[in-house]
Design a protein that fits this description.
Blueprint (H helix, E strand, L loop, with lengths): L9 H9 L5 H7 L12 E5 L7 H5 L4 E6 L3 H7 L6 E5 L11 E7 L8 H10 L1 E12 L5 H15 L4 H19 L16 H7 L2 H13 L8 H7 L11 E5 L3 E7 L3
Parallel strand pairs: 1-2, 1-4, 2-3, 4-5
Antiparallel strand pairs: 5-7, 6-7
Helix pairs in contact: 7-9
């Protein structure tokens, strides 16, 4: 799920026009240790709804769902036609003023694409009720050296302004080539020291289209600010959340799932 603060970015609209994510088990993994059943009867804020693919799953449980995005609300609305408990709002999640607080605030794959993740985090926290639950899934700085120092500079120099159709072709080529090591040497246990070893276990479970979406997202994003473990501890500190509720779980060696209950 992606979003950029301060300005509209056509990249996201084009991305979610071309690609849809229907891998529900990933969503369940990203929100751990929370389960989707915990959304039942809750007033939920989805910060950065993208194409609305996660919205429908949460709306099945929630009493009400407010889904916010700066770029793709029209796509999310079209995808969720007939669901009457979702309110889609076009707004910047870093600066929005919704005038209400929520039982659950969830932000999946978005905060690391905003201009100022700290500002975004604190604005989301402001929209969370006391004793409400915050859920964030974000790319980690740890474990992503190859993307940070290899893919990112190359993307900025050579791929940033390619037509979206050409970028999608590049993404499909890279995805296809990655299948070769993923299904050969990465299947051998004694190569577990290789980068993205845990991540590529998921790669083998997913469809080609979903894997291509992952690659495309990394090539298409206007910016990515990878989240350090230190930053996770700063955001989900006992000053802001009940200490016993704080959960910071590494996921597949490339991201963090963050959960906490706001102090009353």
């Amino acid at each position: 799920m992606t979003h950029q603060a301060d300005v509209n970015n056509n990249e996201w609209h084009q991305q979610w026009s071309m690609h849809q994510d229907d891998e529900k088990f990933l969503f369940h993994d990203w929100i751990k240790p929370v389960t989707i059943s915990e959304f039942k009867g809750k007033k939920v804020l989805e910060a950065g709804c993208g194409g609305g693919q996660h919205s429908k799953w949460m709306a099945e449980q929630a009493a009400s769902l407010t889904s916010v995005d700066l770029n793709t609300v029209d796509l999310a609305l079209e995808r969720n036609q007939g669901t009457d408990n979702i309110n889609f709002i076009k707004a910047d999640i870093a600066t929005m003023e919704l005038g209400e607080q929520f039982d659950i605030v969830i932000c999946i794959g978005v905060i690391h694409h905003t201009d100022d993740p700290d500002k975004t985090f604190h604005n989301l926290y402001k929209h969370l009720k006391p004793n409400g639950k915050m859920i964030i899934w974000t790319y980690s700085s740890e474990g992503n050296a190859l993307v940070r120092y290899g893919v990112e500079p190359f993307r900025k120099l050579f791929l940033r302004h390619l037509p979206i159709s050409i970028l999608n072709m590049v993404s499909k080529f890279i995805t296809t080539m990655v299948y070769i090591p993923v299904h050969t040497i990465y299947r051998l246990g004694f190569f577990s020291f290789l980068p993205y070893y845990d991540y590529f276990k998921n790669f083998r479970k997913l469809s080609f289209n979903r894997n291509n979406l992952n690659v495309f997202d990394k090539l298409n994003a206007p910016q990515t600010r990878f989240t350090t473990r230190q930053k996770c501890d700063e955001w989900f500190s006992p000053d802001l959340f009940n200490k016993e509720s704080i959960s910071i779980l590494p996921y597949a060696g490339v991201s963090y799932s963050l959960v906490g209950i706001k102090r009353s």
